[in-house]
Amino acid sequence: MVTQITRGIKISVLTSFEGTYFKNYKIHFAFSYKITIENHSKDSVQLMSRHWEIFDALNNLELVDGEGVVGKKPVLKPGESHTYSSGCLLSSPFGAMRGYFNMINFTSTRSFRVIVPSFKLSAPFALN
């Protein structure tokens, strides 16, 4: 598990290999990830949007930006957490993701960025 704390917001990431799939006559490697966002700050916050950089071993880069996470913009009071699962397809059995969440602090009404640390995506059959 990979974890990081930014301005009192703890991000934890757990990944899993889900299998291989053929799409558009090409093999793809499917990965899932579970992210837990914990509010260790003194203020209520809301996740507004996300930014991902998804890399594979073939040097391909995919950028993903969007509102919320899996259709939600969770509000976290101090001590609360939110967990969600999502996934991605890679063209190789190895890769990585990193990114950030744009959040709003309800006390100060200021936006801030919470870093999602780089986490590896790897198919177990490809490991030595």
Say how many strands there are.
9
Largest sheet: 5 strands, antiparallel
Taken in chain order, the helices and strands follow as EEEEEEEEE
How confident overall, as mean pLDDT? 95
Strand content: over 45%
CATH architecture: Sandwich
CATH homologous superfamily (4th level) name: ApaG domain
Ranges where pLDDT stays below 50 over 5 or more residues in a row are none
- Number of H/I helices: 0
In short:
The protein has 128 residues and is mostly beta strands. The protein has no helices and nine strands. The protein has one domain: ApaG domain (Immunoglobulin-like, Sandwich).
Write a structural description.
By secondary structure, the protein is mainly β. The chain has a single domain (2-126), classed as Immunoglobulin-like, CATH 2.60.40.1470. Helices cover 0% and strands 70% of the residues. It has no helices and 9 strands. The protein has strands spanning 2-6, 9-23, 26-39, 45-56, 61-67, 75-76, 81-90, 94-105, 111-122. The strands form 2 sheets. Strands 4, 5, 6, 8 and 9 form a 5-stranded antiparallel β-sheet that branches. The radius of gyration is 16 Å and the shape is elongated. It starts with a strand and ends in a 6-residue tail after the last strand. The relative contact order is 0.28.
